[in-house]
Amino acid sequence: MRTSLRLRVLSAKDVVIEEIRALIHNGTVTSGERISTDDLAERFGVSRTPVRDALQQLSVEGLVTITPRVGVFVREISPQEITDVYQIKTALEPMMAAWAAVRGTPEQRAAFRGTFDELERLAHSNDVQEYVRALEERREALLAMARSDGLRDSFAVLDGRVRLLRFRNLSQPGRLTESAAQHRSIAEAIEAGDPEAAYIAMRDHMLDATARVRLLVVTAQPNGDPAPTAYSKLSKRTEGER
Q1: Spatial separation of the C-alpha atoms in residues 67 and 150, rounded to whole Å
Q2: What's the domain of life for this entry (predicted)?
Q3: Which of the pair, 229 or 53, is modelled with greater confidence?
Q4: How far apart are CA 185 and CA 101, in angstroms?
Q5: Which class for 155: exposed (0-12), middle (13-18), buried (19 or more C-beta within 10 A)?
Q6: CA gyration radius, the chain
Q7: Phi-psi bin for 147: left (phi > 0), alpha (psi -120 to 50), beta?
Q8: What angle do CA 59, 94, 118 make, to 5 degrees?
Q9: Distance (Å, rounded) from C-alpha 131 to C-alpha 111?
Q10: pLDDT tens digits for range 88-138
Q11: What is the pTM of this model?
Q12: I want to staple 97 with a disulfide (CB 3.0 to 4.6 A). Which of 3, 71, 77, 198 is the partner?
């Protein structure tokens, strides 16, 4: 059966991107699974061209990998890579929030706080897809205030690697309202122009997100143990020296 697409509202490519992204996010297609261009074209009632274009965009986002003469696959990410990426993000995101608090104009900071109501509404409606989209828009606003091309380039690489895991983390029961409460603290600190409070609020948010993601990773480990981190390795080495 073909899926009805809103081709009059969005381009065929944009609609197919949304549809494929939803299939990946909701687990209909899983990590490592091959994606057939012909099957998707038939499923969505479009030609292969918008499907190919959509897959190229999703490859840029980090959701799929395209191997010439082999095929397109839902991207797989190892537990160690997930751990590494979240540790790097935990180091960078508080810095971004602090810089936004001091480098953003009063108008930018007030506007950032003003858009929080929409984020909270999405959290209460339990719309994970739109909530993630709103978070990405807020990330862009933070980067605009932080005025750092280096941070922007870093997140462009990092976020694609864990976008799917972020969606699954936020899909956990009650997670959206908890996330929104954390983002309220971040927004209030930035509006106040308080870099220290913004740094701490973002750091606490990232530490919580990292802990939750590690729990998701544990369930995927054959022996049930989390992937080792630089911190856990250091801790074990220190204990052995005592």
Answers
A1: 29
A2: Bacteria
A3: 53
A4: 13
A5: buried
A6: 20
A7: left
A8: 70
A9: 18
A10: 999 999 999 999 999 999 999 999 999 999 999 999 999 998 999 899 999
A11: 0.73
A12: 198
What is the SS3 assignment for 135? Answer: helix
34: three-class secondary structure by DSSP = strand
* Cα–Cα dist 132/236, whole Å: 36
Residues present in the chain in total: 242
**DSSP alpha helix (H) spans, 78-229:** 79-103, 106-114, 116-125, 128-146, 149-170, 175-191, 195-220
CB 66 within 8 A of CB 72: yes
Query: What structural domains and CATH numbers belong to the chain?
Result: 12-74 (1.10.10.10), 79-230 (1.20.120.530)
For the chain, give the mean pLDDT.
Answer: 85
Structure token digits, residue 177: 């309202």
Band of pLDDT at residue 219, cut at 50, 70 and 90: low
